[in-house]
Amino acid sequence: MAKYEPHLDHIFSALADPTRRAILDRLSRGPATTSELAAPHDMAMPSFLGHLAKLETAGLVNSTKSGRVRTYARADTAFVPVQNWLGRQSDLWTRRLDELDSYATQLAKDRNNGT
């Protein structure tokens, strides 16, 4: 049985929202302040701060505060567990599909040979 990683639930939950994915896309270009991140989104600041909090709780972003300005940056190492999990899933399904292909090929050969 595969090892269950509860932290993945927080990461996938954070990634499930398009606003949060847009924030991560913006942060892939470099750190940004709360105001810079909020500017393209048409929502109240408390709602937007909730999105940032969800990303930070999931460990996908880090923030620093200098005076009254909070700056966010992407925590790229947080994506490693997701990449590892997706890689394992890809390997598993590739192996299963290869086995199915071998089985179907063998059935076709048996049918052609009349067995």
Structure characterization notes:
There is one protein chain. α1 (6-15) packs antiparallel against α4 (45-57). The protein has a 3-stranded antiparallel sheet with strand order 1-3-2. The chain has helices at 6-15, 18-27, 34-38, 45-57, 80-112; strands spanning 32-33, 61-66, 69-74. By secondary structure, it is of the alpha+beta class. The chain is built from 5 helices and 3 strands, in the order ααβααββα. Helix content is 62%, strand content 12%.
Keywords:
115 residues; alpha+beta; 3-stranded antiparallel β-sheet
DSSP strand (E) fraction? 5-15%
Which strands sit side by side, in order, in the main sheet?
1-3-2
Spatial extent as radius of gyration: 22 Å
The share of residues in helices is 55-70%
The biggest beta sheet reads: 3 strands, antiparallel
Series of H and E elements: HHEHHEEH
Instruction: Indicate the low-confidence ranges by residue numbers.
Output: none
- Derived from helix and strand composition plus strand pairing, the structural class reads alpha+beta
In whole angstroms, how far apart are the ends? 37 Å
Mean pLDDT: 89
Number of strands: 3
Oligomer: single chain
Q: What is the number of helices?
A: 5
Shape: elongated
